[in-house]
Structures are given as C-alpha cells and as structure tokens.
C-alpha cells in the first residue's frame, strides 16, 4: 500500500471554511472577552468537537445554550486577540504569532493549556522563554508561579529549576522578590540545592518579611516592641529553614542579633552560646544547636560553595573546568575537620583526618581572603619523623571568583605530599600548614608542583581551614 499525505491542502480547505462569510454554515457563536475587549466568533461545531477535548465538554447539552439554532458559548477569560490565533490553529493547524510582547505569548500559552491543546504547549513555552531572555528578572516570579500552577509546563519547570540551582540571585535579588508567594518562598528555602550564601538568604527573607508587615521603610532603631512582634509572627513559618550553622559568627552577630526580640524564641541555643563564649573563641565559633538543620546539596562548608565543588570534581577527574554540572558531578565532600570549630592544633587535625583515605583541604588566607588548598589521594598519618608520600595524583589550587581563571597546579615530582606529627596537611613546600594555636601558619612557595598558586610572601596566617573526605558516588 502506498500512502502520501497532503496535509497543507487539508489545512487550506479548513481555513477556507473558517474564512467563509456565509453565516448559515456556522452553528456556534463563541463570545470572547468582556466589556471593552470583547468579540464574537463564529465556528463549526463539528470542527471544534473533532479538534478539541475541551469543546467536546463545553458544547455539551449541560453547558451550552442555544439561540436561533446556534450554540452560544461565553469565554470571558481569554482575549479576542489570543482566541483568534487559537481558532486559526483549530482550523488550519497553524500557529501565527505576530508580536514580540511576552505577555501576549504568555496569554496564548495559558489559553492553550486551558483548552487542552497539549501538542503546542512545548513550542509556546520555548517562544515565551525566548521573549523574556533579556528581562528575566522582570518575569521570574511570574514564571515560578506558572511552573507550579500549570503541571503541563515542563519546559518552564526545567527552566525554573535551572535558575534556582545556578542563578538564584535572579530570584532573591530581583525587583519582584517581595511579591513572591509565601508558599513558594518556603519551598525555595527548603531546597538543598540553592547556590547562595546562607546570610544572603537571611537578608532576603528579612526584607520580604519587613515588606509584608510594612517595616521596610523604618530604621530598626525606630522600632518598638510591637514592631518586633509583627516581624516575629511573619518570620515564624520560615525560621526553621534558615541554616544559621552555615553563617559566620560575625554575620550572625551583625545581621541576626539586632533582631533578637523577633528570633530569640526560635534560636535561643545559638544566642546563649554566643553570650557565654569569650570574644576570642567567639571569633572562631561554629554553631551547633538543637534546631534541626537540613543539609544543602554538596558540602557542609563555611569556605566553599557547590559551584566550587563542581570545579574541584572536574579537576579530580582531569576534565575541563566546566565538564560537570550540578546534577552530574560524582563526588561527596564529607567534612572531617574545621579548624575554627575543632581547634587549630595539628594533633586534632591528625586525630580527625588520619587514615581516612583521599581528602580535600581548603584554606582561607587571613587578611586577603584568598581561597587555596590541595587534594591528597593518600591517607594522612602522623609519624614522628618526616615521611614522603609517593603520588602524581595530588594537586594544589587557588580558586578565583571567576572560576575559569582559577589556578590548578599538578605535581612535577613523585613525592608530592608529606606527613609528620607536628605538621598539618603537607603538600611539600608548595603548601604546608604548620602547628599553631589559636591560629595556624602556612608555608607556600613554588617547588614540587608545576605552577605557583600564590604570588605574595611565603609565610602567612590561616584564617580557617577545612578538610573533607572525598567519596566518589
């Protein structure tokens, strides 16, 4: 059997029937819009019933009214401009979009979803997202609402998911953020994959709450107890989703404690710990408190975020710097030791990190805030005499704000790591933490690795450092 389709001719013939001015052939009058934006359209019931699941129900006896042997149907929530495009699609299978306005495309998308034209939804979503690509911040809150309210908008849902994971600032720092629904904001704060500092989430939440209770225009020095109580009530649904343990003590003291009357009931353990701790210890304090804190995806760290975890994963597998994505990077980084929490004495480092297999060390430099570190594929251990470790799979690094410009330095000698009881992580002369309390000193010069990772003096003070067990998932 030979079959040949001539669909363009079929489309043309149906469009001719639609454009026919002989009113006697039409048996449906569809009243679209209302008041100043109103228009009546005539159509053939057999075409509507054949092409649309929606109209099979809408034109049933239970719904439709008849007048002069014609079915009368009223649809006030669709504009005439949009319905004309839909009607041409019903008759001819053609979608004609002659506007650059994203709002018009969005209206068409929502109407097509309501009328159950699922076959064109993906196409219209792509068109809409293309129209807003240069003004995402103006539409992002609306787009998030669409992804939740319309389960069939799969492309928009994927787009929102990407924004949340990789560019959350578009949402949290957008001019429409204060208009975000409470339920959606809770859903965002519950997620483990938002790549934004916890203190920034807190700042944004505060602004959102102050806007809702009309305190955003007042300086906190002008507040009275009633104002603090209003904020407290607004914060209540969110407070358990803010991970205060991921904040520095300074951030917590400067940005959370001023709102103490509004938050003390919820985070009393933290506040108590601060006020019963000496100033020197408080500087290096890492919070552990009774409020349950869910862990965000990637890494329990005060120093590096998930984007930097992805970069390090690429280095581990000797891939290009952007080879992995959030959903594909194949490592877990499990915190073993944090100097500001566990103490800077190297004996504690060895107690917590020796014989744990491959580890990642991340160091924040005092004064410059440089982020440097190294990877050791071997066990750390603490012999009484200096012992070299033989490996060419170690590396040291410096992470820059522009990740592509970060420095990766691989070994040029086989004995690229070393161990001794009175040293911390030791990547030969290129990066070695030495003993110290309450701080550690670090030695860094170009010796056994192919690139220097610092250009300044050889010895410096470590503000904090963390060591992670590296586990391939």
TrEMBL record:
SUPFAM superfamilies for this protein: POZ domain (SSF54695)
Stretches that traverse the bilayer: none
Domain named BTB: residues: 26-99
Domain TLDc: 302-471
CDD domains: BTB_POZ_ZBTB_KLHL-like
Protein name as annotated: BTB/POZ domain-containing protein
């Amino acid at each position: 059997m030979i079959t040949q389709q001539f669909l363009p001719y079929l489309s043309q013939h149906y469009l001719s029937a639609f454009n026919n001015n002989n009113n006697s052939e039409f048996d449906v009058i569809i009243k679209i819009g209302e008041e100043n934006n109103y228009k009546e359209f005539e159509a053939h019931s057999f075409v509507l019933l054949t092409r649309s699941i929606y109209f099979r129900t809408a034109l049933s006896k239970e719904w439709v009214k008849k007048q002069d042997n014609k079915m009368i149907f009223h649809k006030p929530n669709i504009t005439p401009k949009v319905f004309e495009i839909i009607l041409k699609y019903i008759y001819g299978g053609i979608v004609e979009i002659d506007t650059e306005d994203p709002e018009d495309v969005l209206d068409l998308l929502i109407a097509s979803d309501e009328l159950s034209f699922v076959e064109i939804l993906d196409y219209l979503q792509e068109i809409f997202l293309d129209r807003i690509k240069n003004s995402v911040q103006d539409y992002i809150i609306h787009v998030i609402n669409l992804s939740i309210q319309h389960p069939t908008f799969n492309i928009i849902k994927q787009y929102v998911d990407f924004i949340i994971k990789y560019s959350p600032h578009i949402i949290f720092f957008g001019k429409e953020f204060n208009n975000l629904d409470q339920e959606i904001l809770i859903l965002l704060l519950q997620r483990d994959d938002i790549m934004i500092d916890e203190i920034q989430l807190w700042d944004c939440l505060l602004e959102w709450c102050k806007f809702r209770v009309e305190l955003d225009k007042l300086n906190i020095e002008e507040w009275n107890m009633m104002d603090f109580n209003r904020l407290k009530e607004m914060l209540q649904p969110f407070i358990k989703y803010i991970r205060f343990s991921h904040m520095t003590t300074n951030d917590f003291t400067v940005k959370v404690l001023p709102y103490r009357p509004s938050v003390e009931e919820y985070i009393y353990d933290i506040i108590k710990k601060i006020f019963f701790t000496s100033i020197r210890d408080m500087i290096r304090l890492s919070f552990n408190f009774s409020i349950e804190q869910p862990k965000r995806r990637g890494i329990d760290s005060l120093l590096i975020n998930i984007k930097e975890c992805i970069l390090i994963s690429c280095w581990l597998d000797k891939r290009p710097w952007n080879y992995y994505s959030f959903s594909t990077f194949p490592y877990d980084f499990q915190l073993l030791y944090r100097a500001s929490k566990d103490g800077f004495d190297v004996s504690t480092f060895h107690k917590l990190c020796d014989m744990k297999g491959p580890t990642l060390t991340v160091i924040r430099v005092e004064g410059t805030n440089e982020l440097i570190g190294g990877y050791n594929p071997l066990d750390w251990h603490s012999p009484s005499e200096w012992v070299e470790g033989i490996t060419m799979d170690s590396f040291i690094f410096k992470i820059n704000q522009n990740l592509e410009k970060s420095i990766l330095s691989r070994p040029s000698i086989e004995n690229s790591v070393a161990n001794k009881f009175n040293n911390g992580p030791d990547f030969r002369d290129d990066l070695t933490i030495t003993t110290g309390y309450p701080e550690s000193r670090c030695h860094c010069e170009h010796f056994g690795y192919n690139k220097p990772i610092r250009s300044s003096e050889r010895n410096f003070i470590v503000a904090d450092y963390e060591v992670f067990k590296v586990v391939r998932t």
